[in-house]
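Exercise 7.
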Amino acid sequence: MEPGTYARQRLVSFVAALLGTTLLCLAFGDIALAQDAAPPACGGKILEKCTPNSGDTAWMLTSVALVLMMTIPGLGLFYGGMVRKKNVGDTVMTSFAVTCLVTILFALLTYSMAFRAGTPFVGGLDRMFLRDILSDIGKGGIGNPNPLAATIPESVYICFQMTFAIITPALIAGAFAERMKFSAMLWFGGLWAIFVYAPIAHWVWGPDGFLAAGNDAAWVKVLDFAGGTVVHINAGVAGLMCALMLGKRRETGPAHNMVLTFIGASLLWVGWFGFNAGSAVTAGMQAGMAMLVTQIATAVAAFTWMVVEWTLRGKPTVVGICSGAVAGLVAITPASGFVGPIGAFAIGIGAGVFCYWGCTGLKRMFGYDDALDCFGIHAIGGIVGALLTGVFAVEQYGGTAGALEGNVGQFFNQCIGVAIVFAYDAVASLIILFVVKLVVGLRVTQDTERDGLDLALHGEAVQ
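Solution. The predicted structure, written as tokens, is:
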């Protein structure tokens, strides 16, 4: 081979190797730059321009659907089966209309009042009209999550908490069923959502609420995992105020369709897994334990109610065992992220016994007409669950010990929280009821009540 040819071949080989090396460096450099540019994962202290956890988000999307199902159709059917046939349309219409009304109010105002930082008593207004929510799919799917739910998009957290805000005033309807004006119900439900639900939700769950267990500066740290005080005591006490203001029904009758009540109770039971396990706002260990204790407490409470009713009245009823199940669901709600199976058994027994008494003996003792036992199940069950949370809380499950683990002070914290919510709710609800009574009136006429609310108020009836 000639010397010139050999030299040219060596030069070509060298240039080719150099180009290959350069291209590889550029490729790996682009990968490294791309990796450096990837947005961080949301969680902990990373709360701006970050990507949510897909597993947590998927579970919370599911939970939103489950909890919404609790109100429509679950609660509507549960209540609808227990009223007389001539009022079933108004009863299910109430659940549906409240769902619409509270959704609007939550988007406009009450989400910001309840779940944004502000004062110890009410949140700020930086999310009025749900403005300034970052949800950018063009930059790797980034957002600014609410610190209360750091690993999911704020939009999903809004929807989740919205379903809680919806079902709470819908529960109140069980107390005033068959005698309240539909217009009065809408006015009361809307004002109550703003002036009662939103502040109490902020006190107990808000980032700077004065009863919030997660707030280091809280005055009293109250454990309420999924709504024993915020939802159930709140709704039950308001229901009692409605029953007292409206007075008794002029005539009563047995539940017109126990099958509707059975279907409604079953939907509530299934949906409650989203309610309690979803309140972990993650798809992890706490959600799993919350789901387990929810199932146990509900079954124990339903069975306990059945046995008590069978013993005292001679026959177990469908409406009774369904009511017992709902009582168990209510009572385990504040405890679900904090107690274990033993606590669930105790809470279930307590709910079955005390809520049965609340719907029978207590109601007869004071003579109020809580038509569908809103106070007897939700307030009494919520109080039982909230207080027993302070007894059976297990530190390894929820991060806070209860009285059985030596933290007796937590039981007293629970008592204080229950008393504060009860008192504020009672006074504020009565004020709202007086205002509504002055503006539109509260109760339907005697003729409307006799003929049935369906035809008189809505122009339709179940045949």
